[in-house]
Amino acid sequence: MITLIHGDDIDASRQALNTFKKEAKSKELRQLDGRSVDATMLTQTLESGSLFGKEYVVIIENLFGKLGKKIKIIESLSTILRKSNSQIILWENKELSATVIKSLGKVDGKLFKTPIILFQFLDSIVPGRKSNALILFQKLETTQPVEIVFMMLFRRIRQLLIVISGSSPEGLQPWQTSRLRTQAKMFSQEKLLDLYRTLLDIEYSIKSGASPFSLGSHIRQFLISL
Fold first, then answer.
1. Which residues pair with 91 in a beta bridge?
2. Coil, helix or strand for 111?
3. What is the band of 9 on the pLDDT scale with cuts at 50, 70, 90?
4. Could you give the percent of the chain with pLDDT greater than 70?
5. Could you name the CATH architecture of 116-224?
6. 113: left (phi over 0), alpha (psi -120 to 50) or beta
7. Residue partners of 47: CB distance under 8 A and separation at least 6
């Protein structure tokens, strides 16, 4: 049986994976980093028996994400997975294509996608448009953990700093990098550095317990400063 956990909402998908691990704690867990797995290693892991005669679960992270459109390799690995009688959990840090999913045959698929409103909020982080950002944040507070919003906000400012310096963030599609460059052009590098330092200060004050304000209040003040 193959369970596929994938999507760009990594925190939610990680929670799902951790739930599977807890449920399988009475079994032997075999965990692989899919980025360094080849067909031979995969076969050996799936087919070798347990030393203690226990049932085992094979967890493989990021097996397909690295392969892009290498169809022959995808088909080869998928065939090995399909033929195995082992309980297999695949975790991917992004949504897999329909081609890859189809190659796996019958799977229990669990897709975790970041809500569109969160991306709309991140895209609204530009000078002079704080009212729109505040409205979107208010909506997000009712549906998403504020810690996740803060983490994504932190990552977005970091990405903007990377692109404004002439580099490209890792793991993004060209169109995503292009959108970041457009957003970064609305800031000076000095302003982005100032925003980044502010987020660092917020993170420290919350983690140390030094701040009398909630994380949500800090984010609102951050947005007002845009």
1. 5, 61
2. strand
3. confident
4. 98
5. Up-down Bundle (1.20)
6. beta
7. 84, 86
